[in-house]
Amino acid sequence: MDTAGLSRSRLKRLHSVLSGYVERKEIPGMVALVSHNNDVHVEVLGTMAFDNPKSIKRDTIFRIASLTKVITAVAALILVEDCKIRLDDSIEPWLPELANRRVLKSISSSLDDTVPALQAITLRDLLTYRMGFGSIMAMPDTYPIQKFIREYRIGGDGPMLPTQQLGMDEWLQKLGSLPLIAQPGKCWMYQVSGDVLGALISRISGKSLGMFMRERIFDPLGMKDTAFYVPPEKIDRLPAFYFLNPQTNKLDFFDDIKKSAWSSEPQFESGGGGLVSTIDDYFAFCRMMLNKGRYGNEQMLSRATVELMTSDQLMPEQRKGSEVFFGTHSSWGLGFAVDIARKEIYHNPDRFGWTGGFGTTGYIDPREEMIGILFTQRMMDSPEPPKVFTDFWTLAYEAME
After folding, report:
1. CA-to-CA distance for 366 and 355, rounded, in angstroms?
2. Are 269 and 228 spatial neighbours (Cβ–Cβ below 8 Å)?
3. What is the sign, positive or negative, of the torsion defined by CA atoms of 281, 282, 286, 289?
4. Above 80 in pLDDT, residue 225?
5. Could you give the CA distance from residue 278 to residue 285 in angstroms, rounded to a whole number?
6. What pLDDT, on a 0 to 100 scale, did the predictor assign at position 106?
7. Which residues contact 316 (CB under 8 A, 6 or more apart)?
8. How far is 350 from 107, CA to CA, in rounded Å?
9. Which residues are CB-neighbours of 306 under 8 A, at least 6 positions away?
């Protein structure tokens, strides 16, 4: 019998379609969750690796990549509500490495062809990813600054393993030695703002980013398996992670569980993409956001703060050039993507969340009282990611009564 939340017959279709990706060996395994009006359905499919018969379980620990960004944004807004910093405060008192910025005259300029920044970078700039530095969506070495981003391991030119990252202080010094690509506040640029935001939280709180998140987010929400690395007693719950090798057109290891880069504490806890988590841990976080900052008896954020975070904060001209991320249906709030128009079945205005490049996605739809989460460990390969993600969202919305 169908319930008031999710249609059982349509959930069977969800199971059938997702299972097909495992059976065709496009993905070794996955965990998916759909919640509508407190009716929760979870699919647990496949194995920990193509060559490992051990089954994926509901408590499997996934590298959640850029889903880290939304948790980092919540951590920053907790500091705002603590009155430790304000949205339009300069970050320079805490991150002097990023003071007195200079800006390239154009993206094709040499590193000494610059003008002064017109304003300091603010917390709002970091949360809206308008600090003036980030991923350049062009072929490697199209522009002079790309070489330095890669050599300095800044992280704006593609995914890195935690073992490849610099320590936080050295990373900030390297970043501060480069000019900005655009004036602060001018345009949205991906990735680097999230890592700067994590460093800012650490400096303001006087704690590591992981410790601050543990005390203020993970412990209150019962997120016992969310962290920046997987300790030895849990490492058998971490699946293999694959990417599509463009030379062989086959799936190869990006991170093998036998020698995982997530098996030890990183030098730099990346606020832009470093966390691991489970489906139930991340569901607890999403429920808190759906409930306007409240989880059980815990009011983690005020309703006003959550509504601000999940409302569109960009002008159309600030999104220009980022259509690969936003298309015509989405924009950005304070750390979250926010749908602003319908393009697909699942693009409901006010829906918010994000997708991680390591094969994870999580969105919250307050109009429908709906949460959807899909965790895989298959990289979102370009130019076209696996269709499991669009199929999941289509089927999740179909399943709602």
Report:
1. 18
2. yes
3. positive
4. yes
5. 11
6. 96
7. none
8. 33
9. 289, 292, 293
User: Rg of the chain over CA atoms, in angstroms?
Assistant: 20
Domains of the chain: 8-71+222-398 (3.40.710.10), 73-205 (no CATH)
Distance CA 223, CA 236 (A): 18
The confidence score (pLDDT) of residue 382 equals 63
Distance CA 304, CA 306 (A): 6
User: CA 212, 216, 220: angle at the middle one, nearest 5?
Assistant: 140
Considering the chain, what percentage of its residues have pLDDT values greater than 90? Answer: 89
Q: What is the pLDDT of residues 18-37, one digit of tens each?
A: 999 999 999 999 999 999 99
* Spatial contact of 198 and 272, defined as CB atoms under 8 Å apart: yes
Among 78, 95, 87, 177, CA closest to 130: 87
The alpha-helical segments, DSSP class H, found in 152-302 are 168-176, 192-205, 209-213, 219-221, 279-290
CB-based burial of residue 4 (10 Å sphere; 0-12 exposed, 13-18 middle, 19+ buried)?
exposed
Backbone phi and psi for residue 393, each to the nearest 5 degrees, phi listed first: -70, -40
**CA gap 222, 282 in Å, rounded:** 10
Selection from 238, 227, 226, 231 nearest residue 57 by Cα: 238
Q: What is the pLDDT of residues 286-311, one digit of tens each?
A: 999 999 999 998 899 999 999 999 99
3-state DSSP assignment of residue 72: helix
Question: 383 falls in which pLDDT band (50, 70, 90)?
Answer: low
Helix 192-205, helix 68-81: angle, nearest 10: 40
Euclidean distance between CA atoms 189 and 181, whole angstroms:
9
3-state SS class at 362: strand
- Enumerate long-range contacts of 147-156, CB under 8 Å, 24 or more apart: 148/111, 148/178, 149/178, 152/177, 152/178, 154/178, 154/192, 155/191, 155/192, 155/195, 155/270, 155/272, 156/189, 156/190, 156/191, 156/192
Give per-residue pLDDT as tens, 171-183. Answer: 999 999 999 999 9
What's the average model confidence in pLDDT over 344-352? 94
Q: Kind and range of the H or E element at 317?
A: helix 316-319
For the whole model, what pTM was predicted? 0.96
Q: What is the DSSP string of 258-299?
A: GG-TTSS--SS--TTT--EE-HHHHHHHHHHHHTTTEETTEE
